[in-house]
Amino acid sequence: MQILCSDHSLCLIRISTWAGSSEVDAQVALPPTWATLKPLNLTSPQFSINNHSNYPYIPVDSVLSQSFAAMHFLALLILFLLSTTTLSQASPTGKSTSINTTAKTTQLNASNLPVGAIITHCTTPGTIALTFDDGPYIYTSQLLGTLAQHGVRATFFLNGHNRGNIYATPDIVQRTLAEGHQLGSHTWDHPSLDTLPYEEIVQQMTILEEAFMRILGFFPTYMRPPFLRHTPVVLGAIADLGYHVIGASVDTKDYENDNPDTNWVSFEKFSREVDAGGTIVLAHDSHQHTVEILVDNMLTDVERGLSAVTVGECLGDPPEYWYRDGR
């Protein structure tokens, strides 16, 4: 067994066994907080979850002397996860076989929406799309309850490791999807993509794809760049990965008004920009007073004449194009 850690708040546990004359390699990705190892700071080569040669190898024997009990527990946990996971299949030759993704890849290509181009407005008349960035977080569950009370669907652009960690709240991710909301990518740990080279932009997306795969069995085809910042390099990388890029025509700037005394400023900005024709709304489920005050006010306002739906719905994109199960 080997433990391979990176500076992206993720460890990969690899366990090799022998079946006949062939070595079978199984692997499970876990947050490093589940282990006793401190993540290593890798700068060259960059971390890639699909390139095992880029990981530093740490023999378990060198770790046992530090914490035998913890590693024994971890080994039992990994064996349990390996017995239940279906995301990696071992072939008779010992190579990992990928999931057949022909159907969903074809569906992605069939979508009429562009990839790698900023989309800021709905195209379906009479619709508005409320979107929430930076979750899952401690307020997401309450927000889901509010949306259910109003009978509306929204879109959530999730991070892997930002204010919360996606591996710590798989139930919230699954609930969000089950209640009819759309999920999108917001990168692994919320960097400003315009400061990163091409390779690191791709890694920010594919590391989060791995998390979605382990929690849901598929990952989104929609994304939003953190801070809405992008460059030709950013959009090129996102296009190469096949993502629809969602911007906003209504920015509540709720992060500037996350208190009861000034939350009305975000609501007034929302109302003005909707009146001016804005239809894709940016807010955050990581802010308490957005969830407790702003959302109710926004929904009460739009219910006078607009239908609050997911981004995919407001763009006329069928739900079967919102996700894919591989590359």
Automatic annotation (TrEMBL):
Residues 126-309 form the NodB homology domain. CDD domains: CE4_ClCDA_like. The keyword Signal applies. Its cofactor is Co(2+). GO terms for molecular function: hydrolase activity, acting on carbon-nitrogen (but not peptide) bonds; metal ion binding. GO terms for biological process: carbohydrate metabolic process. Keywords: Carbohydrate metabolism, Cobalt, Hydrolase, Metal-binding, Signal. Transmembrane segments: none annotated. Signal peptide: none annotated. Pfam families: Polysacc_deac_1. InterPro entries: Glyco_hydro/deAcase_b/a-brl (IPR011330), NODB_dom (IPR002509). PANTHER family: CHITIN DEACETYLASE, CHITIN DEACETYLASE-RELATED. This is Glycoside hydrolase/deacetylase beta/alpha-barrel.
